[in-house]
Amino acid sequence: xxxxxEVETIRRGLVAKIKGLKIAKxxxxxxxxxxxxxxxxxxxxxxxxRRRGKINIIDLDNGKSLLIHLKLxxxxxxxxxxxxxxxxxxxxxxxxxxxxxxxxxxxxxxSRLFYNDLRQFGxxxxxxxxxxxxxxxxEKLGPEPFSKEFTIEYLQKILAKSNKAIKLxxxxxxxxxxxxxxxxxxxxxxxxxxxxxxxKTIRYKDIKILREAIIKVLNDGLKYxxxxxxxxxxxxxxxxxxxxxxxxxxxxxxxxxxxxxxxxIIKRITVGGRGTFFCPRCQK
Length: 284
Fold this sequence. Notes:
5-stranded mixed β-sheet
């Protein structure tokens, strides 16, 4: 599932491509993935694109906003009028619309934005912009890792209340918005903490290191344009994959040598039903 760096990469691409464009038509090819009526956004102009956690928010000039959650295999691909992709896209190929295309936005300049979703878990939802803060999809989200609210004290507070594995706390969207499996694995390696370690046993000095590690790996994810790992469908709005997978610390590196050259070999276990990677030598 796309996490903060992937969703933010898409947001930045959407700002560059569709901000200021007028939506001429919306074709919904799979009804369950579009909550609302196409007529609520048709004729409106894109004012801005924001992000909250793993959700992108397209603000329109008619008082409506469109929430987009890509879930596991959602993709947003922008194609300019008269331009073809020129390269294949994961799960879609070289031609759009493809079998995995379920929503198409047509803009007044002839360009189009395709929503592809192989597994069909993603969704779009039209809401009143004035009521965004009370939307159930947004109101329960924890602070953003790059926000001033994400302090050492906040992290200490949420960890002290739980005996759950530290990795599960990092992935809990009501605790921290945007961190998922990829970056939780790598942040815990960066901080030298075992993923299965009970959260409330983490010492204050290690919490400080962990906070810095979370921010560091997320920044790296952004730097490299997100992650398109072995089980990922992520592409940016131009249909290009990310590059963070070439810089994984431990994620999807089972059986490989630890990057700290400490003699450790990366192991894989399951924590909370998710594949979890760590170095038994340097993570304690």
